[in-house]
Amino acid sequence: MPDQNCIREIAAGNKDLPTLPGIAIKILETIRNANTGIDAIGDLIANDPPLSAKVLKLVNSPFYGLPSKVTSVHTAINLLGSHTIKNIALSFSLVGSYQNKNGNQFDYPLFWKNSLISAITAKLLTQNISPALAEDAFFLGLIHDIGILALLQCFGNQYQQVLTYKEEEGCSYQEAENQILQFNHLEMGNFLTKSWGLPKMFYTPIRYHHHPFKLRDQDPELHTLTQILHLASLFADFYNQKNKTLYLSLFEWYVKEYEFGPKISFDQLYKQIHAQAQAVFPLFEVRLESTESYDDIIARARKELEQLAANTTPSLDNGHGSQQTGEAARPATDQKTILIVDDEVRNITLLKAMLMSDEHHLAGALSGEEALQAIVENPPDLILLDVMMPGIDGFEVCRRLKANQHTQMIPILMVTALNRKEHRVKAMEVGADDFLSKPIDRTELQLRVRSLLRIKAYHDQLLERHHEITRKNAKLEELEKVKEGLTHMVIHDMKNPLMGLAGYLELLLFENNDLTADQTKLANRCFTLCEELNQMIQSLLEVHKMENDQIELHKETLEISVLVKEVFAQFEIQAQKKNICLSFETKNNSAAIQADRVLIKRVLANLINNALRHTPAGGSISIWAQPAAAKDQLCLSVFDTGSGLIGEDKEKIFDKFKQAENGTLMGSSGLGLAFCKLAVEAHGGKIWADNQGAKNGAIFSFSLPN
User: Fold this and answer.
1) How far apart are CA 229 and CA 92, in angstroms?
2) Cis before residue 331, ω within 30 degrees of 0?
3) How crowded is the C-beta side of 608, counted as CA atoms within 13 Å?
4) Residues 148-173 pLDDT 10s
5) In this structure, is the dihedral angle defined by the CA atoms of residues 315, 319, 325 and 330, taken in order, positive or negative?
6) Are 82 and 74 in contact (CB under 8 A)?
7) 3-class DSSP state for residue 174?
8) Whole-prediction pTM value?
9) Could you read off the pLDDT of 586-601 as tens digits, one per residue?
């Protein structure tokens, strides 16, 4: 935000910076001249007939309620004082100079309507709070937004962008100006009125009337006047803006926040403002343009405020009649539920008014205990949580909610008058998602709420997708079980006809009375294929059992040399046919392991069978037995002189039904090596594969506890 020197430089580069009208300059010079008497001010105004006529009309209007008609400016000065008449004259001269502008989208009539309501409200408030400042308050209310006219006149084209941005974003002048110009009308109005020679009691409140708390440590009279101007500006927004309930709630909340409440009767004040507006507006050539009774507008806004206050309950019922709890009780629409927790009804009412829209369902709770009960019964989408509450304070409420897995993902926005660093740190330590200090800025509140609700929506979507994936995964697991069961049943039932077929072939070969040599050879081949198919079925059944932890191990002491010899015997004829040499090497012929003989023997058999498939004629296959890297384990490795493994084959060959890159099935239809992996792991061992070197063959190894 620029300082005053920066504003001065900006203003110096603009020849169009607004100046006071000639008559206003003369009035101020006359007042500053210590040698000038009261009559000189009267003469100055009286010599300007249009201005004199307007001053007298206002003096004789119900706005002042004088008992008899005043016919001269000098008489008015004697009755009301030169200070009052000076402010009236300055007001008329300013409005007349900057009233009729055309050629842009700025609404000048609305601007002066807003300014006049601010002026009337400021005067009436000051009469109740600090009567000596009432006339200055009127003039101050009239010019409090003069910076807007200055920016409009100095930065015509750029300010059109400000007006467009304000309309599109639905934000304030100040926010739009900061976005487009990087400074705002408060700063410009402060500089402009100071350059006109107006005293501090005018230019300081103009600078801070949206943020009076920044003057808390300044002169009490100046602080009070700034607070009054803030209230006047809020009531003007109520008078002229669409969201009546919001601005009425803001106005009444700040009246009590500034401790002006005991001095003000709201109903009486509203009637006085309306009556004086009707009297003053025509004199400034500004139209009320109200098609609805002012009393009706106040009554409707008051009723809405009372409804907001009456709806301050710990219940999060969304208004759709749901009495359920949990997710089932969520609003049937896309409304997001926001729970406001504060021990003061007026604070809840204000926040509800700030957030009131079709997008939100707003609920309230007046204590930490009520909030915790309501949240457990029906979790909201967002919680606005006050800190300083009797009983369970906001920090403890936040800590409990974040410690509960059912509520820990609900965003919590701490809203409090505490603004010291340690309080913010504590809020974050107990799990708060954001922190907002009082007095609450509506735009900042809406931005924080929108951001946290968006994050909550992302979380809800993610959670729903997780639930959907979980449901689909459960369904897939169920289907997988059905498939596995069906496969197991089919495979199991295949054994009977296969064994019958093998039995008939064996009987046919046993009798062998009428078969020719070729027929006998074919019958033997069929019998061998039946045995291989039976082995495949057995492998499938055993793989299924091991995958479901249904296999039982019958461990015994196995001497490795004996076990290898038995396995070699199974493949002796097959190896001779391909002229492949089978060998066994070990440094300890008495090496032994504790294992299930049948399973480990089949592991070795599958590995040798796999090696025979991939080793060309004239090659060799050897088994080495040696201590493993892990303590108390023995490693068995099967070496071949085949083509070796390619790329990712090392990782996937132990999966069921996987093929190597060259298309060759690993083991018996892809089950042999899968069986080996499961059997070894069932013994607490590990199996792996590697290459001996470029085109030197593969190594399949497994380790088992010895």
Assistant:
1) 20
2) no
3) 29
4) 988 888 887 888 899 888 888 878 88
5) negative
6) no
7) helix
8) 0.65
9) 888 778 899 999 889 9
